[in-house]
Amino acid sequence: MSNKKEFAIDFAFYTYLWDFYYYNKKKIRSKYKLLSRKFLDFNDYQNPTSFLREPQFEALEIYIFLKEYQDNKKIHEIFTDWYERKGGFENRGDLGLTEGEQYSLFTMEIEEYKSVFSRMKKFELDYSNYIFALTMGTGKTILMATCIFYEFLLANKFPKDKRFCHNAIVFAPDKTVLESLREIQTFDKSKVIPPEYLAWLNSNLKIHFLEDSGTTLNTIDRSKYNIIISNTQKIILKRQHKDKSKVESLFEYASSTGSAYDQLGDLYGFDEPSEEGELLSNQRFSKLTRLGNLGVFIDEAHHAFGDALAKDLGLKKAKTSLRLTINELAAALEKSGTSVVGCYNFTGTPYSGKEVFPEVVYSYGLKEAINKGYLKNVHIEGYTNPKSNEFLRIAVKDFVQKYNTQRFEGMLPKLAIFASTVEELQNELRPQLEEILNDLKIPIDKILINVGDDKITSNDDIREFNKLDSPGSNKQFILLVNKGREGWNCRSLFGVALYRKPRSKVFVLQATMRCLRAIGPIQETGQVYLSEDNLMILDEELDKNFRLNVEELNNTSNDKERFKVRLVPPPVKVTLNRTQKLHSLRDKVVSEPINFDIDQLDLTKYQLRKISKDGLNGSRKISDDLKDEREKKQFSQYTLVAEIAKYLNKSCIEIESLVVNSLPGIDNLVELVSEYNDLLYDHVIPKLFDALYELKPYESKEEYEIDLVKEPKEGYYQFTAKPELVAELSKSEYKAIKEKTFHLDTYCFDSKPEKKFFQDVVNSKDIKKIYFTGMLTHGQSDFYIQYIDPESNTVRNYYPDFLVEKSSGDYVIVEVKGDNKIEDPVVLAKERAARETATASKMEYKIIKGSKVMNGESINILEQDKSYVQTSLVAESQGNYSKGNKY
Question: Which residues contact 410 (CB under 8 A, 6 or more apart)?
Fold first, then answer.
């Protein structure tokens, strides 16, 4: 294989796409429709009330970026624009993220570009095709629902914009996954939809759940806002090899009329389709062709790994029936004057063996999800040469020893034990398990069997299986045959045991991952028990699908331990003053022409210039403004007036009159803002606002007393932390100073500087009290400060690290922050709000660099007055200080 080809199949464009978006987010969002910005702000995972997790929200950001900023372009077109720095990518840099999240200089030679482009182009479809690769347990179903709801809101607001879907079909591979997609139907939409749009969506949304073969699709032709959720087998086209008999023709006619004979349509003995040959349509497919602006969403759980997904996504020559059906659907819609807006594939991995799928636009991997706590940690054990009974006894005894009768969210932990055949389960596995449970004095009614055979698995067993994730279930040992793959979302599953080598290697990976879904307030650990053969298979499959191995997966826990944290009486109370700011807006009467003072503007900050330097010691050369390279939107008098009116709540007629009579006049303004677009928003609109309105601020201060920690319902809170970063009241080293601190019996610090600050300050004679509050960030405390996020302009809660009481009785709110974060815009926004609250409450606020703490300067900084600390920080930020200190 040539280096060029290797580069193409290893090139992960999605990392550079995210890099560009992240560092240009503010400018990119300014191009979005207002509704898109509102939707993102409402769902931002950093909001205290947001429902979406970080990977869900980031995927939504990329989804809207592709929709709004890239106009639904195909991936090879986006890649070309990115490479050539055009089409919105003019400001992209050469820095990219490596796998270890370190920055590296990225350059691509022309031959490498051509090889990547040709690979993307080779698998081009007639519609945009994007892949969102989020590992299991991160919430792909909710993400799909959120994306569809977004589409419908925008389609309603902008019905002629062809980028937005008016209808959506969600494909599931089988009945198990289909059942999991019911969450789209039952999901509380208020969690992701801004309240002002919820009533419209509830009254217009129509969900069609095609549960079985006899279900017809009853959409109204050319209707909008339909979500069709279906097993792929109920929609896909099939190839007919023989002429239809008269009886088959009769059934086909009956089916087309929507009668009870519909169910026979899926029972014809036709083979899977190929590229050629006559394709047999069905009632549901025909109905889909009469819906406009269709978005196709594929829940890829059945393709999560291996060649099947590669075929579906166009990486293999032979296309599956699903992909062929979507292609035919796109062609049929094109003929009827509409289209498939796009195909959105949701998968668990960006890889197919050694290859990176070329159309991946966002990826969130298995290791990331475990490290972030979105999944359980995992502990994998393999056993060499055990007999089946020995293996089973070891696994069950270890599982019982670890979990016994503990409950998590009120549910018993469960162990799934897989057999390769029904006969093996009945003749070996079941009697062996019953014997082991009898020896352990565990009732055998805790066993549940689900094998897909109604002679063995009764309807009662199915009901028990479906309610495993409920406090009422007493089942703990689940015996399965070829079950529990995709779509089985059992959060109370804490262990998997797999002894026999299955026919499908990927089944080992699919089965073992079932026990990793997160449960409870802290990160638990799933136990995996494998024979040596299956351990080797798991290693291979992890490498193929996640670029991981068993050793790396076992080491994702980061050596954190679980701590139960209890309140130490009496409860600590704090008096705070919070300031509420109000603004009164009054209209002004404009009696004189508005002067925009154009001649006083510094236009150089809007110009694009090239800085060049020959040699290391050469002088810098700065070019003139590169006018032709700058991104510019051309305004006319009408579009300029309309754009201004959007922001000022005035009629276009009134705005036009003001601008026409202004200095330097509307013609000069049109020419200027067409040349420098940002000038319109930085200068022209603010100047008009000041002329039209008078803004008067008012402040209202409220004093109230809060508990530093709320009483936990269960008597304690649970946290995970590295043992070396924990301070416990019970330890002898802290007994001498327990009167000065510990409103909780255990402090779980996030970093070495936090713990060192605590130890230095608590041992100081000049300090009366110190309380660590930085661990209470999930509603356990009312000690927070509200600030306005500089990116989204939404209100968020900030929880400071420490509250310190000096011997003088003065209070200081303290934040210990890594050196590289001091100048972060969010940190600065938190600092401004905290200083305001502290001043109103007759306190001080100090933000201290981690390096200063590690150098033993904590006490000196606490004793310095506020003006010195602020001046010192500003001076240091202008110097040549390290930005990358980590502790």
Answer: 471
pTM for this entry: 0.70
3-state helix, strand, coil in the chain (%, to 5): 40, 20, 35
In this prediction, residue 111 carries a pLDDT of 80
Q: What crossing angle do the helices spanning 430-439 and 388-403 adopt, rounded to 10°? A: 50
On the CB side of 380, CA atoms within 13 Å amount to 26
Each residue of 2-41: b (16+ CB within 10 Å) or e?
eeeeebbbebbbbbbbbbbbeebeeebbeebbebbbbbbb
For 308-343, give one letter per residue: b (16+ CB within 10 A) or e. bbbbbbbbbeebbbbbbbbbbbbebbeeeebbbbbb
Question: Which residues fall within 8 angstroms of residue 504, CB to CB, at 6 or more apart?
Answer: none
Amino acid occupying residue 702: E
Residue 89 one-letter amino acid: F
Q: For 601-634, write each residue's pLDDT tens digit.
A: 888 888 877 676 565 555 677 778 777 777 788 9
Question: What span, in angstroms and rounded, lies between the C-alpha atoms of 347 and 354?
Answer: 16
Angle between helices 3-10 and 110-122 (to 10 degrees): 60
| pLDDT confidence bin for 325, thresholds 50/70/90 | confident
Going from the C-alpha of 854 to that of each of 755, 800, 858, the distances in angstroms are: 10, 19, 8
Across residues 634-662, what is the average pLDDT?
Answer: 90
What are the tokens at 178?
């289909």
- Alpha-carbon separation of residue 642 from 155, 349, 459, 670 (angstroms): 22, 46, 64, 12
Q: How many CA atoms lie within 13 A of 482 on its CB side?
A: 11
How many other C-beta atoms can be found within 10 angstroms of the C-beta atom of residue 743?
A: 20
Note the pLDDT tens digit of each residue in 651-682: 999 999 999 999 888 999 999 999 888 889 88
Give the residue among 63, 288, 266 at the shortest CA–CA distance from 171: 288
Contact 794, 47 (CB under 8 A): yes
Contact present, 799 and 813 (Cβ < 8 Å): no
Please give the single-letter amino acid code of residue 777: T
Q: How far apart are CA 258 and CA 449, in angstroms?
A: 38
Contact residues for 664 (Cβ-Cβ < 8 A; gap 6+): 596, 598
First to last CA, the chain: 43
